[in-house]
Task: structure prediction
Amino acid sequence: MRVTRILILVVLAVLCGAVSNLTASRERRLAWVGGYTLAPRGAAAPAPGPAGVTATTPGSASAVTTFSPHPDKAWVEIDGDAAAQLHRQGVLFLDARRSSVYKDGHIPGARSFPVWESDIDARVKALFEEGRDQRAPIVVYCSGGDCEDSHMLSEKLYFVGFDNSLVYKGGFPDWQKRGLPVSKGDQP
Amino acid sequence: MAAAIPKILDPPAFAHMIYNYKLAPGWAINALAITLPWVELLAGLALILGVWKREAAALIGLMLLAFIAAVGINLARGHAIDCGCFDVRDAGKTEAQRLADMRWVIARDVGMLLMVAQLLSATRPSQSRYNI
Result:
């Protein structure tokens, strides 16, 4: 047995993997997820949005009074009752699951922010550039249970300056279990 | 090779699976997700074509050892996961189903490891009888 041959196979695999990932479609290309630890805020965060811009989502003002910003932590977990209430108030919902799963069914109005796909940072940046009130609540969800995609997305939102990310712990399965409305397709 | 194809077709899903094991550091997850399936594919291809058989078998053996350890550690700490061996989609299984599957995965991998050992043994270069 030659170690050189094993190394050649591994190097070949690395090259094939790199080419494969580079040429993959957006939905099947890897995003850089990095460590699952809170990133320091500040230095690398983009500049603040346009001055004087406030929350544009209807009802978000009353939601703010219920769910106040938490600049000391990336997320706060909420249950299904709170999620349903916030949904009625028109608070922004973000779906952190894969885009293919989002198409199969999602919370009406929720935007797709697939945390494992290659353009997640671009989506977060675009959301930031909309000039939303960074203290207004944003509900983030994934598949419930031990799914942590919503926590990862909250971390990204926190990093760019959103201070009121609320993780819907039960996620989409809980939403369905409650018999609440569901939308299909790739549009919110 | 059958295990490699779904992972190659959907690296984000496989990266997610690796993340769920809670063993690899964050910086290694993507590198593993991109490289590991190709190692599986190339090693499998080498075995089928009869090229560098011992090296390919050794690589597969090393990967099986790593898989057994990874699943075993999670089983020992009661952390139910989808193994992501032949399918990288979220199967929507219950915790009990996942834990049961993990035991089967270990048994299957040990079986495959025995096959690798047999292959390495059968392809061992013969010792010269004059080389005493």
Summary: Helices of chain B lie at 4-9, 11-21, 26-49, 53-76, 95-122. Chain B touches chain A at residues 8-13, 15-16, 19-20, 25-27, 29-30, 33-39, 41-43, 46, 52, 54-56, 58-59, 80, 90 (CB under 8 Å). Chain B has a mean pLDDT of 90. The longest helix of chain B spans residues 95-122.
